[in-house]
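Consider the tokenized backbone below.
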């Protein structure tokens, strides 16, 4: 892998490929903070870019912030990679060392994707700054299978770890907030018990009615 010196390019030429992005998503709060910092005169580090494909290797939040601030020319450092596996490994290493801390779900996604790219457990563990044993433990305890594919699951679905799940459950896992299920249930109970529901909000009331109907239906099915 070789690096070039920093140079300015048009931001429109960059590619944000989420298939090689180690994180689950770009955090809008982080982007807002970056935009505020730029408005205050802070100069952000150059973006790391794959020279062959123009894909961003490190700097998704910064690029998103530049776009939001309508900055059309930014500083980048190009780097060449021998394979997508090398590129992904570098992206993981960069994100593990700085910026917002990788979540547990991020780590599990990275471990499963590394296996697809045939990156050894030892190498990906080093990139994540964790032990091989820890990486293997995360894979065993926090993944499920859909068909022949191993997928990471959020804390909301940890009771399904090691099992085969449906595509519908995979889709639900993607939309899940990631907290323990009891957290969400207790939040709803708290709102109802302490008269905190906005009963004039039609969407809220409709959602509660739907929840009630689904619980009643489950009772009927289980009888």
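A designed sequence for it:
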């Amino acid at each position: 892998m070789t690096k070039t010196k920093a140079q300015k390019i048009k931001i429109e030429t960059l590619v944000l490929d989420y298939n090689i992005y180690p994180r689950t998503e770009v955090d809008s709060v982080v982007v807002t903070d970056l935009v505020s910092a730029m408005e205050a005169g802070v100069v952000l580090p150059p973006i790391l870019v794959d020279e062959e494909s123009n894909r961003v290797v490190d700097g998704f939040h910064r690029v998103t912030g530049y776009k939001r601030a309508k900055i059309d020319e930014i500083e980048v450092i190009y780097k060449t990679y021998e394979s997508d596996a090398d590129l992904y490994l570098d992206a993981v290493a960069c994100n593990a060392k700085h910026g917002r801390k990788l979540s547990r779900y991020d780590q599990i996604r990275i471990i499963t994707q590394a296996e697809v790219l045939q990156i050894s457990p030892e190498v990906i563990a080093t990139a994540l700054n964790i032990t091989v044993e820890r990486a293997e433990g995360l894979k065993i305890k926090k993944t499920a299978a859909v068909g022949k594919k191993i997928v990471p699951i959020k804390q909301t679905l940890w009771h399904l770890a090691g099992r085969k799940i449906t595509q519908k459950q995979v889709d639900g896992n993607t939309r899940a907030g990631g907290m323990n299920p009891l957290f969400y249930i207790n939040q709803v109970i708290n709102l109802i018990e302490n008269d905190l529901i906005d009963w004039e909000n039609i969407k809220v009331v409709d959602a509660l009615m739907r929840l009630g109907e689904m619980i009643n239906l489950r009772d009927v099915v289980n009888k």
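DSSP finds nine helices and seven strands in the chain.
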